[in-house]
Amino acid sequence: MDERIYLDHNATTPVAPDVLEAMRPYFSENFGNASSIHSLGRAGRNAVDTAREQVAELLHAQSPSEIVFTSGGTESDNHAIRGVADYYADRKGRHIISARTEHHAVFHTCQWLEQQGFEVTYLPVNRYGRVEVDALRDAIREDTILMTLMHANNETGTIHPIEELGAIAEEYGVLFHTDAVQSVGKVPVDLRAMPVDLLTLSGHKFYGPKGIGALYVRRGTRMHHLILGGSHERNRRAGTENVPGIVGLGMAASLALKHMDQEAERLRKLIQRLEQGLCNQLRGVHINTDPEHRLPNTLNVSFEKVEGESLILGLDLEGICVSSGSACTSGSLEPSHVLAELGLNPRLAQGTLRLSLGKQNDETQIDHAIETITRLVKRLRRL
Ligand SMILES: *Cc1c(COP(=O)(O)O)cnc(C)c1O
Q: pLDDT tens across 26-42, in order?
């Protein structure tokens, strides 16, 4: 039995047993290429069609044909942003609206487009990383072709006012892409109420497999496509379909739809317990997650006079897996681009943990985590 306490679900989640079971036959007896005409191919095609319906249902999309399977969140973000930019550059303009708190898959794509002659306006955010709706109206111009703003932030768990932002984009005729990787499967993402044209999701953030994701493309949205080749995915994403991955994503979507409300309520209580526990036990604790507009599973918290890397390594030795507030890629000590944008002073940003809960966690684990974090923070402060 694994005794580890995993509090890093925003980085990735384990594949749910039912998801693995659903995928298994598509590695072996049902190995057909979904584009083949024979019976093995048709079995693969049917499985892909079912998964497309499951994903469409989770999002309340108008039609399954609006779902394009991709290799994950990063590809979907690139596809959406570069696809729209490329299509509209010579038709309408080269101005894009985003924020500096976006995931690197969006942020680095925007920066690359700036190097290609596009202009990007980055909206300001408040101390929890939430964009101000009024700032959007001021940013929109004649030549604005796209707004790309995430639904929930992966580091802070703060949720953006997508409905209001989308309504403004719609009013001005600007296409709206949202990276919903962190919200899909955790909170309702209902396209009937969300005026977005393009939406990114990723399987491994909600108990599906890694290396599979989807891009929702509202019917009628004009754009170019990123990966050229065969006529897969209605000419929108070439390459032989990752049938097992797609089947797994479909099953993960279907499980999320069934269990979301109950699980969100359970996680909300656990995260509250964690936050209150830490605030009661320790002084100098700063919460960076929006108190109202937040994911049910995420707490981003800074401890004064603590070096975050030491805290994380200490927690790992005690079997507790968490993330830091540093740039996640390099093991560097630079505060993450998101925390820097919140206006957190760099010393405080260094002492930041991102705690993200999921299905495996229960009250006993949370109490143990509170006790361990408290003990380690006090020890590090004495040094
Ligand atoms: C994880 C994540 C991504 C990247 O998704 P992958 O499937 O890992 O490429 C993009 N955006 C956000 C907000 C994420 O949390």
A: 999 999 999 999 999 99
